[in-house]
Amino acid sequence: MKIIAVIPARYEASRFPGKLMQILGEKTVITTTYQNVVETGLFDEVFVATDSELIFNEIQNHGGKAVMTGQHETGSDRIAEAVQNIDCDIVINVQGDEPFLKLEPLQQLIQVFKEDDNQEISLASLKIKLHEKEEIENPNNVKVITDNNGFALYFSRSVIPFHREISNDVDYFKHIGVYAFRKHALLQFSKLEMKPLEISEKIECIRYLEYGMKIKLIETNFIGVGIDTPEDLEKAKKLI
Q1: Which of 234, 84, 99 is nearest to 177 (CA)?
Q2: What pLDDT digit, counting tens, does each position of 62-73 carry?
């Protein structure tokens, strides 16, 4: 299998515009993310897909590869445009605002497809257990519930499952926005109309579920910092 990584990078993020060009350590957030992905050595090629000349030039000036795209509602739609003429089998989508992703979670995602002999899985992604009530209730943390085989049942910014009766047996998981797609599933996704659930939650992988595609979730212990707010950036600076 030919495996590539694409980092969707939109400048005008709704909650924190320009966050990818903020300085983290000695480099911008997007350059830090790009270089960390390249350094894993897992991919035949790594690209940044962006509609911003600032971000495009930033990556090019640091010796990286970038592709200009049109404007899109979701990162997956942006990646689909970027890869349609690239020869590959599996596309790993690493969020530009997740600069601390490590080797092992990416290896786990790739392994999903190596073991999927019947090619039933359209998309694989990561989840991590949440423990603090504040984190569970935070709408910036997308929660996911899965079946017994690890396939996604639903994603939500709300608390799922709802705790109707107090119990210590329920686990809560945060969805980490790192996706691994089969290329043909990604291209199909980009042609599908958004449905009300995706529009309401502003969670793009719901579109896969609404059209009956299978999403495999892998539990990880990876703890990074997704930079959605200025406060997240300060946390990331401390982690650096």
Answers
A1: 99
A2: 999 999 998 887
Residue 87 in tokens = 């020869």
Residues in a beta bridge with 178: 94
The full DSSP string for 32-55 is HHHHHHHHT---SEEEEEES-HHH
Helices (H) then strands (E): counts for the chain: 9, 11
- State whether residue 218 is helix, strand or coil: strand
- Could you tell me the two tokens for 111? 């392994």
Assess contact for 153 and 137: CB atoms under 8 A. Answer: no
DSSP track, 184-214: HHHHHHHHSPP-HHHHHHT-TTHHHHHTT--
Euclidean distance between CA atoms 144 and 217, whole angstroms: 9
- DSSP letters spanning 131-152: --HHHHH-TTS-EEEE-TTSBE
Is a pLDDT exceeding 90 seen at residue 166? no
Assess whether the previous peptide bond of 230 is cis (omega < 30° from 0): no
What does DSSP say about strands 90-94 and 172-182: parallel, antiparallel, or unpaired?
antiparallel
